């Protein structure tokens, strides 16, 4: 049981003071990286997107019969929808995350070209219907990434909750701009380490 000076997150107990320090560090890094995204020229964004799609396609290899979870781009995230189309044509089942209940794991719902879409809880387009899928591979958008392959996301904790809840761990691949490297996210016990991160400058970071 947590003391008054502690809090519990994902079943892990942490000092409130430590959490405040970590939250402040991550918020500052997010704001810095969001600003870099906003200032990124469209030509650079397009070039980095192509670079990441090529490297990701090479990394995935034969995807026939695999279920791959992507994301719908927001806040200047790399737009990999062309890759979603290509992998669907190659025989993969493509899915997108859907927030069904706030502050709870997401479900991955099948997406296909032309499928009915609706606006989700955060006003992000999601497949309107379909049974939840269990992904073999999850592609995660990066705000930041450190050398140990810990991801800085938008701060909601949805991916960490979701990945921790899956009975079989999928392959976890982060994708982001070349400038998204940071020294450390100051990882906590509930943070889920990625297997690999592919960046727009051509670099690849792998978990130790």
Automatic annotation (TrEMBL):
<dbReference type="GO" id="GO:0046872">
    <property type="term" value="F:metal ion binding"/>
</dbReference>
<dbReference type="GO" id="GO:0009396">
    <property type="term" value="P:folic acid-containing compound biosynthetic process"/>
</dbReference>
<keyword id="KW-0547">Nucleotide-binding</keyword>
<keyword id="KW-0460">Magnesium</keyword>
<dbReference type="Pfam" id="PF01812">
    <property type="entry name" value="5-FTHF_cyc-lig"/>
</dbReference>
<dbReference type="InterPro" id="IPR037171">
    <property type="entry name" value="NagB/RpiA_transferase-like"/>
</dbReference>
<dbReference type="GO" id="GO:0035999">
    <property type="term" value="P:tetrahydrofolate interconversion"/>
</dbReference>
<comment type="similarity">
    <text>Belongs to the 5-formyltetrahydrofolate cyclo-ligase family.</text>
</comment>
<dbReference type="InterPro" id="IPR002698">
    <property type="entry name" value="FTHF_cligase"/>
</dbReference>
<keyword id="KW-0436">Ligase</keyword>
<feature type="binding site">
    <location>
        <position position="77"/>
    </location>
    <ligand>
        <name>substrate</name>
    </ligand>
</feature>
<keyword id="KW-0479">Metal-binding</keyword>
<protein>
    <recommendedName>
        <fullName>5-formyltetrahydrofolate cyclo-ligase</fullName>
        <ecNumber>6.3.3.2</ecNumber>
    </recommendedName>
</protein>
<dbReference type="GO" id="GO:0030272">
    <property type="term" value="F:5-formyltetrahydrofolate cyclo-ligase activity"/>
</dbReference>
<keyword id="KW-0067">ATP-binding</keyword>
<dbReference type="InterPro" id="IPR024185">
    <property type="entry name" value="FTHF_cligase-like_sf"/>
</dbReference>
<feature type="binding site">
    <location>
        <begin position="151"/>
        <end position="159"/>
    </location>
    <ligand>
        <name>ATP</name>
    </ligand>
</feature>
<dbReference type="GO" id="GO:0005524">
    <property type="term" value="F:ATP binding"/>
</dbReference>
């Amino acid at each position: 049981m947590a003391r008054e000076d502690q809090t519990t997150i994902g079943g892990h107990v942490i000092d409130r003071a430590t959490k405040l320090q970590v939250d402040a560090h991550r918020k500052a890094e997010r704001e810095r990286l969001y600003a870099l995204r906003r200032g990124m020229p469209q030509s650079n964004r397009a070039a980095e997107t192509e670079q990441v799609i090529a490297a990701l396609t090479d990394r995935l290899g034969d995807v026939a019969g695999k279920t791959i979870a992507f994301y719908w781009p927001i806040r200047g995230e790399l737009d990999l929808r062309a890759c979603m189309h290509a992998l669907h044509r190659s025989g993969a089942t493509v899915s997108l995350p859907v927030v069904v209940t706030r502050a709870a794991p997401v479900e991955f719902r099948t997406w296909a070209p032309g499928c009915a879409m609706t606006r989700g809880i955060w006003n992000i387009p999601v497949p309107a219907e379909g049974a939840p899928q269990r992904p073999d591979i999850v592609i995660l958008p990066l705000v930041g990434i450190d050398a140990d392959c810990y991801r800085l996301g938008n701060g909601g904790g949805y991916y960490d909750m979701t990945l921790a809840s899956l009975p079989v761990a999928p392959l976890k691949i982060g994708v982001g701009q070349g400038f998204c490297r940071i020294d450390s996210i100051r990882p906590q016990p509930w943070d889920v380490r990625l297997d690999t991160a592919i960046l727009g400058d051509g670099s690849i970071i792998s978990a130790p």
